[in-house]
Design goal:
single chain, about 220 residues, alpha+beta, Immunoglobulin-like, 5-stranded antiparallel beta sheet, 4-stranded antiparallel beta sheet, 2 helices, 13 strands, about 30% helix
Amino acid sequence: MAVTDITSAENLTNPVLSKTDSSRNKLAKDLDSFLTLLTSQLKNQDPLSPMDSTEFTNQLVSFAQVEQQINANENLTSLIDLTQQSITTNATNYIGKTIEALSKSFPLQQGSSKIAYGLADDAANATLLIRNEAGDIVYSAVADKSKGVHAFEWDGKDTYGVQQPDGIYSAEVTALNGQNEPIDTWTTAFGKVTGVTNANDQIMLVVDTLGIPLTEVLSVSSS
């Protein structure tokens, strides 16, 4: 799952709206240039042999069609914005709730965290690793080798019993069968939602400083 560290997320301009504004500005400049050229041609044409109006009439029709398309894009952008606002408003209902989401990253909050991991088949060997944000392994343990989903609660202490600071960590489960072939695994994270944000035009639930896409939420609970 693609998660986002919201501490580094920037407010981005709506790319559809920016492209529409650019297209409208270009159309206005092109139309001004065309009308200036057309006016000059009409002033200087031979009265006994007037220019054919078909070409510039077709050109004006083309300008009108482009403007209609730009207007349609602007209306579509407005609908998208309204939809995103509605989704954001509804997403605020998650604030204060604990969610489970597909993610390798998870928050350590007040010295406590909970994850779950799954194995696609029974394993001969399975290992659970927890890394800090720098990528260093701070905890390792033998994972449950049976097929299925397993819960794991971490108290934030490393392999030597030293308490680690609250923050974002990642869990990695590796499993091998009797022929030393890898077995598919996955992890889910639990955390309390503290806010809602929009990153790269995607609604994200804020868990600590971790942004989790709304579409990746598997379950919601009050505790």
